[in-house]
Amino acid sequence: MISKKMVKQMSEQMKNEFFSGYYYLSMAAWLEAKNLSGFANWFRVQAQEERDHAMKMMNYLVRVGAKVEFLAIEAPKVVFESPMDICKKTLEHEQLVTSLIYKLMDTAQEERDYKTIQFLQWYVDEQVEEEENASGLVERLKMAGSTEGGLLYVDNEMAARVYTPITAE
Ligand code: FEO
C-alpha cells in the first residue's frame, strides 16, 4: 500500500507539474507579445506536456486508491529579459524538477514501494529529455548570436513543434 508520505509528496509534484505548465504559459505570453510566435508555440506545447505530466501522476494516485491532495498553484513570474533569459530559466527549472523527481524516488526506495519506483522511472527518463530540450534551446540561441536574423531563424524552427499527448496511465 502506498504511504501517506508518498501520496503527499506525489500530490506536491502533481501541483509542481501544473505550475510548470503555468510558468511556460507565462513565457509563451511574453514571447507572443514580442512577436516571437515560433518560441511562443514551443512554450505552449511545453505547457500542454506539463499538464500531461501532472495528470499522469494524478491518475496513478487515483488508481492505487490514494486520496490526492489539490494544493494551490502559485503565480509564475511574468516579466523576462529576453528569449535567452527564458531559455536559461527553462533549463534551471527543468533541473529543479529533476531534483524533485529524484526526491520522490528516494522516498519510494526508502519505503520499498516497488510499484511507485517503477511508475516514477518514467519521470526520471522524461527529465533526461526535458533537460536536453532546454539546454538545446540555450545552445541554439547562442549559435544564432544576437542578430535579429539568427533569432528569427530559431523562431521559425520552434514553430514546427507539435503537441503529442503522452500515454495516460
Ligand atoms: Fe514535467 Fe518539464 O517536467
Description:
The chain is an all-alpha fold and 169 residues long. The chain has five helices and no strands. Helix 1 (4-33) runs antiparallel to helix 2 (37-63), helix 1 runs antiparallel to helix 3 (83-110) and helix 2 packs parallel to helix 5. The mean pLDDT is 96. The structure holds MU-OXO-diiron. Residues 17, 20, 50, 53, 94, 97, 130 line the site of MU-OXO-diiron (FEO).
Instruction: Give the number of DSSP strands.
Output: 0
Strand content: under 5%
As residue ranges, the low-confidence spans are: none
Estimated structural class: mainly alpha
Indicate the mean pLDDT.
96
Multimer state? single chain
Can I get a quick summary?
The chain is 75% helix and 0% strand.
Q: Which terms summarize this structure?
A:
169 residues; binds MU-OXO-diiron; mainly alpha
